[in-house]
Amino acid sequence: MTFQGQISGYADPALHAQGLYIGGRWEAGTGIPVYNPATGDILAEVPDAAVDDALRAVDAAAAAAAKWRATPPRQRSEILRRWYQLMAEHAEELAMLIALENGKALPDARGEVAYAAEFFRWYAEEATRIPGEFRHTPSGSHQILVDHEPIGISVLITPWNFPAAMATRKIGPALAAGCTVILKPASETPLTAYAMARLGEEAGVPAGVVNVLTTRNPAAVTNAMLADPRVRKLSFTGSTGVGRGLLAEAAKTVVSCSMELGGNAPFLVFDDADLNAALDGAMVAKMRNAGEACTAANRFYVQAGIHDAFVKGLTERMANLKMGPGYDAATQCGPMITQKAVRKIDQLVTDAIKLGARATTGGAPLEGTGYFYPPTVLENVPVDAAIAAEEIFGPVAPVYRFETEAEAIQLANDTEYGLAAYIYTADLKRAMRVGKGIETGMLGINRGLMSDPAAPFGGVKQSGLGREGGVTGILEFMEAKYYAVEF
Ligand code: NAD
């Protein structure tokens, strides 16, 4: 890996990783440029792993597996705890790295590092509390003893939008459970993953327990790993389209899959909501990571009585955000990840405007260097515009008007996704009633941020399978084994 230009001025040299990380060794290489989305400049180049490299990573994970699963939970816990500590000590450098390669504003990057590190702390604690079960059969014939064993070698695939947190949300529970892993981060943001692997090494993660590789050919590399009978788990976070393909591939060898896929979160505001609280929540739910979040509010449904005030307030707040490179201290809204992402947002907005929507602020990409799209509010959006069906993944807030509770629930559920939803109302009874009616894995009630390492994160419908975080997250990396015991 080579580092160029401004990255060496920002990032801690201790975090400059050397290349593919396989079996505890760093293997230098090139082939994948990493861009600064604020300028389009190349920040660094990382290795392009081939299928053979990936299979060597499986060999390394297999060689380390028996010893790691036999390592006492307390020791596994202490290694994760040290890794948490090291992330906390290097928080500022990691945040800068994320701001550089992903583009998000520094406060968001700092928030991500804190959130990411918490998964190591949480699973350091959970490693020592792996549940079991003992029961008598109803017939009295024998006893049921249930143990949980590590599921085995796990392939972890992560997206670019949370380069640290999506990795720790998988590595933490996998290591706590006793599994060895191969992490394949997104090619857009590999530097954070490699930097974290460096810290893992320092924390005492044994060679082969965590392997990291980047590739230009994720399909070939992943398919080869899934075809290897030693691999027993795929934990994927990314788009629903890629997830569907991976589920089909994993079916060939019946590999257990956890899938954290796309979202299309509705954000419901009822007439009785506290307007300022709803606006504050809307800004968090929409603008964390400039809208590049799977939980991002994608559709604002606002009841007729509060609609105009909400649009006015949201427009003012969005128009006041300062845009710029994520790593500039004053920036509140950084660039999008790629020019392609800007084009997709532009298409969705242009199409909505053609169908009758009106931009009260923003509405067109910024000219000049970098991949910038301005904070945008759209009102009068037809409910059947493409922007209501697709993940926007950018700083655009389409607002729709509704009249009745039943209509709001029907609109909220009119999507193939079911990851996150938000409700603002002063009536808790209504919040719970509407919440029950919404098909979602997570619901924010009078709150624009729901992610928490101690809570189960995940979706229903085509937003995914399984949950990450919380007390159940570790079980995604374990198999129940039932002993029928007679004594
Ligand atoms: P993506 O699906 O394009 O890529 C995700 C990862 O999969 C990357 O590492 C990529 O290299 C890899 N990949 C791509 N094609 C592959 C293939 N054929 N085989 C194996 N791996 C492949 O998604 P993205 O653009 O990086 O991320 C944005 C998406 O992720 C959005 O849809 C967002 O909602 C979703 N996301 C979901 C969650 C969640 O927890 N549900 C969290 C963050 C992001």
Helicity, in percent?
25-40%
Provide a count of the helices.
15
Can you tell me the number of structural domains?
2
Question: Cα-atom Rg, whole angstroms?
Answer: 23 Å
If strands are numbered along the chain, what order do they take across the biggest sheet?
Answer: 15-16-17-14-13-18-19
Q: Class of the largest domain in CATH?
A: Alpha Beta
Q: Kindly report the oligomeric state of this protein.
A: single chain
Biggest sheet details:
7 strands, mixed
Percent in strands? 15-25%
What is the number of beta strands?
21
Q: Runs with pLDDT <50, length 5+?
A: 1-6
Instruction: Quickly give the CATH architecture of the largest domain.
Output: 3-Layer(aba) Sandwich
| End-to-end CA span | 60 Å
Secondary-structure-based class equals alpha/beta
Return the average pLDDT rounded to an integer: 96
What ligands can be seen in this structure? nicotinamide-adenine-dinucleotide
Shape by Cα distribution = globular
Please provide a written account of the structure.
With 487 residues, the chain is α/β, with parallel strands linked by helices. It has two domains: 9-261 and 463-485, Aldehyde Dehydrogenase, Chain A, domain 1; 265-452, Aldehyde Dehydrogenase, Chain A, domain 2, CATH 3.40.309.10. Helices cover 39% and strands 21% of the residues. The chain is built from 15 helices and 21 strands. The chain has helices at residues 7-10, 51-70, 73-89, 91-102, 106-126, 165-177, 190-203, 218-227, 240-251, 275-287, 304-319, 339-354, 386-389, 405-412, 428-437, and strands spanning 2-3, 20-22, 25-27, 31-35, 42-47, 133-136, 143-150, 153-157, 181-184, 210-212, 231-237, 256-260, 265-269, 297-303, 358-361, 376-379, 396-402, 420-424, 442-445, 464-465, 478-485. A seven-stranded mixed β-sheet has the order 15-16-17-14-13-18-19, sandwiched between helices. A six-stranded mixed β-sheet has the order 10-9-8-11-12-20, with helices on both faces. A hairpin with a 6-residue loop joins β6 and β7 (143-150). Bound molecules: nicotinamide-adenine-dinucleotide. Nicotinamide-adenine-dinucleotide binds at residues 157-162, 166, 184, 186-187, 218-219, 222, 237-239, 242, 245-246, 260-263, 294, 391, 419, 459, 464.
